[in-house]
Amino acid sequence: MFQSQIAFPVTLNLTGDLSDDRHTMWVAPFAGEVINLWAVSGATITAGAGTGLSVVLQNGGATGTATTALGTVGSGTADASWVADTKVAGSVLSTGATFAAGDVLVMSYDETGTVNTGTFHCGFNVRYGTS
């Protein structure tokens, strides 16, 4: 299949005292793949002290309810600390982070312990087609 070398960014910005939730980020207008992802917390989170943060980019399928993981940022209490306003790179799953036209891409946000990021920004880059 044809694959574009042009990356298209998709971002989500949240504010306030967040709780575990899934946030719809994008309805794909074309078939393609996620090439990278990232997140930025507005507050420092000291992992291993009973607190942590994990974000999973999911392919929600045509209705947005599926939970197929495409990539992750953070791993809860196993993380090194998140530093306020500093980008944390995520990892795209090696099994492929592909999606079909019309698929809903969802960010699943999961806090462990008492975490208040204040603001939270995350995003990913996609391209047409698959490798």
What distinguishing features does this structure have?
131 residues; mainly beta; Jelly Rolls; 5-stranded antiparallel sheet
Textual characterization of the structure:
This protein is mainly β and 131 residues long. Helix content is 0%, strand content 53%. The relative contact order is 0.41. It has a single domain, classed as Jelly Rolls, CATH 2.60.120. The chain has strands at residues 8-16, 21-27, 32-41, 52-59, 68-76, 87-89, 91-92, 98-99, 104-112, 118-128. The protein contains no helices and ten strands. The strands form two sheets. Strands 1, 3, 6, 8 and 10 form a five-stranded antiparallel β-sheet that branches.
Short description:
The chain has 131 residues and is mostly beta strands. The protein has a single domain, classed as Jelly Rolls (Sandwich). Helix content is 0%, strand content 53%.
Please describe the topology of this protein.
Blueprint: E1 8-16, E2 21-27, E3 32-41, E4 52-59, E5 68-76, E6 87-89, E7 91-92, E8 98-99, E9 104-112, E10 118-128
Antiparallel strand pairs: 1-10, 2-9, 3-6, 3-8, 3-10, 4-5, 4-9, 5-7
**Known CATH architecture:** Sandwich
Helix content range: under 10%
Number of strands: 10
Low-confidence stretches: none
What do the pLDDT scores average to?
Answer: 87
The coarse overall form would be: elongated
The share of residues in extended strands comes to: over 45%
| Distance between the amino and carboxyl termini | 8 Å
CATH topology: Jelly Rolls
Radius of gyration equals: 15 Å
Q: Assign the CATH class.
A: Mainly Beta
For the sheet with most strands, the description reads: 5 strands, antiparallel
Which structural class matches the secondary elements?
Answer: mainly beta
Our count of domains comes out at 1
Q: What sequence of helices (H) and strands (E) makes up the elements?
A: EEEEEEEEEE
Number of contiguous helices:
0
Oligomeric description of these chains:
single chain
